[in-house]
Every structure is written in C-alpha cells, then in structure tokens.
Specification:
Its EC number is 2.5.1.54. It comes from Halanaerobacter jeridensis. One of its GO terms (molecular function) is 3-deoxy-7-phosphoheptulonate synthase activity. By secondary structure, this protein is an alpha/beta fold. It has one domain (13-262): Aldolase class I (TIM Barrel, Alpha-Beta Barrel). Helix content is 37%, strand content 15%. The strands form 2 sheets. Strands 3-4-5-6-7-8-9-10 form an 8-stranded parallel barrel, surrounded by 7 helices. Strands 1-2 form a two-stranded antiparallel sheet. A hairpin with a 2-residue loop joins strand 1 and strand 2. Helix 8 runs parallel beside helix 9. It is globular, with a radius of gyration of 17 Å. The two termini are 28 Å apart. The model has no long low-confidence stretch (mean pLDDT 98). Bound molecules: phosphoenolpyruvate and manganese (II) ion. The site of phosphoenolpyruvate has 11 residues, from loops.
C-alpha cells in the first residue's frame, strides 16, 4: 500500500485544509512538551508568526528516564485543542499506548508515533483503525524497509493518511544527538508515495545546527519540517538545548524562502 507500484502519484495528506505532500512544504513547530497553558500559547503564537501551519507538542512524553517530566497527559491535550481554537494551527501530538489512542485522537489532528514506537505493532494497528492522519517517525535503528513496513501496518487497517518523519539514526558520531540520514529523502521518494517530513531538532540535538539541516532537508526534496521551538529554551522541561527561540525560527523560515523557490 505504501509502494509506488500501488500508487505512483504522490500522496497529499489533507489535515482539515492543511496539506502535507505534493507541491507543499509545511512547517510544523512547537515545544517538545506541553508544559503549561502560557508556555504552549506563547509557542503557538511564535509558530504561527513564523509561518507554521501546524503546532507540535507532546502531552504523553517518551522520556529516557522514568524520573524525568512525563508530560501533562490529558490536561496537555486540552491546552493543545485550545491553542488550535486560538490560532487555527492543526495539532500534532504523540500517542504512546494503544489504550490511549481514542483519547489522544479526540484532541489531535495528527497522531504522532515516536521513534521508539516505530515497531510497536499493537499501537500501529490501533492508529490504523482511526481516520486521524498519522506522523510516523523512523526508529533510530530502523532500515527503510522496516520503516515502510511500519507504515504498512497502519495502512493495512484502512488509514492511508500516513506521513513519514525522519529524525536521525544512531551512529558513532558524538557531536550531534543523532545523525540525520538525509539520503532517506531521495531514497524513500523512489520507494513510496507517502509524504516525507524531516525533524531537524531531535537529529541534531542543538538549536544552532537546526537551520542548516532544515535548509538541506528542503533542498533534498522533503515535504515539511517538524521543528521544536520554545519561548524560553533555557527553562524548558525537555529538549531546551535543541529548541529554537521564536525569533530564530522566524529568521530560519525567511532564509528558507529562496531555497523553496529554487526547488
Ligand atoms: C518528539 O518528536 O516529541 C519525539 C519524542 O521525538 P522522537 O520520537 O523522534 O525521539
Ligand atoms: Mn523533544
């Protein structure tokens, strides 16, 4: 279902009028975690002012340590829905547990499957039963084939609105958090009709590298960007070091415009 043999023309996922895929380049921006209503609303305003069409933000957080901030859960989802009302931005947020798919889908416009859950087959099947679009992140050790077969799990359930998101893989490189495998863009383009989104934040782990990687992603033919921004990165409860400040996000989007015209 995900292959070009099945469908040669590119898939455009339509999220209530916001399109991802085809001739569009779509910015999705927001904080790593929803921390408070104030923080989320500030980030949402910054996302919109910078040119984003979608708001990201985790309410259920997959943290490496069980003692780290785990997210605001349903309260966070409610803030996201309120931010959508306020700004018109569509909401993309992670679901980690098959038992929570229904709850998250009640608030979200797009269900995000995190890198750690790319091969959580019960979860993939559960989101495949919904009619909510899905942003599927590549596992840090996932091959292209495994990535596409994960998408296939969702599509096999009848949900064809899948966007692929590359976010960096684990290599020997230690100066970035992960290594962005940008070859994934042209290679996946050849294999699948599904839209391809790049996450420059988790791949680099450092806000300073985000603009160059974002420009490279656009030049390589990606369909959109999933980018972390925070009104006060120093005091973020998660991923502050890789979060752009509002003014830096806006500046980056401006700098990307000439590249967008050239591709
Ligand atoms: C995220 O985007 O919020 C996230 C946790 O990313 P990943 O699953 O790629 O680590
Ligand atoms: Mn994060």
């Amino acid at each position: 279902l995900s292959g070009k043999e099945f469908k040669p023309e590119p898939t455009v996922v339509d999220i209530d009028g916001v399109k991802v895929g085809g001739d569009n380049f779509t910015f999705m921006a927001g904080p790593c975690s929803v921390e408070s209503k104030e923080q989320l609303f500030e980030a949402a305003k910054a996302a919109k002012a910078g040119g984003a069409k979608m708001l990201r933000g985790g309410a259920f957080k997959p943290r490496t340590s069980p003692y780290s901030f785990q997210g605001l859960k349903e309260k966070g989802l409610k803030y996201l829905a309120e931010a959508r009302e306020e700004t018109g931005l569509k909401v993309v947020t992670e679901v980690m547990d098959p038992r929570e798919v229904e709850l998250v889908a009640k608030y979200a416009d797009v269900l995000q499957i995190g890198a750690r859950n790319m091969q959580n087959y019960p979860l993939l099947r559960e989101v495949g039963k919904t009619d909510t679009p899905v942003l599927l992140k590549r596992a840090m050790t996932g091959t292209y084939r495994e990535f596409l077969l994960a998408a296939e799990y969702i599509m096999a359930g009848g949900n064809y609105d899948v966007m692929l998101c590359i976010r960096g893989i684990r290599t020997f490189v230690q100066d970035t958090r992960y290594t962005l495998d940008l070859s994934a863009v042209p290679v996946l383009r050849e294999l699948t009709h599904l839209p391809i989104v790049v996450d420059p934040s988790h791949s680099t782990g450092s806000w300073k590298y985000v603009p160059s990687i974002s420009k490279a992603a656009l030049a390589a033919g990606a369909d959109g960007l999933l980018c972390e921004i925070h009104p006060d990165p120093k005091n973020a409860l998660s991923d502050g070091p890789q979060s752009l400040k509002p003014e830096n996000f806006k500046e980056m989007v401006e700098e990307m415009k000439p590249i967008a015209e050239a591709v």
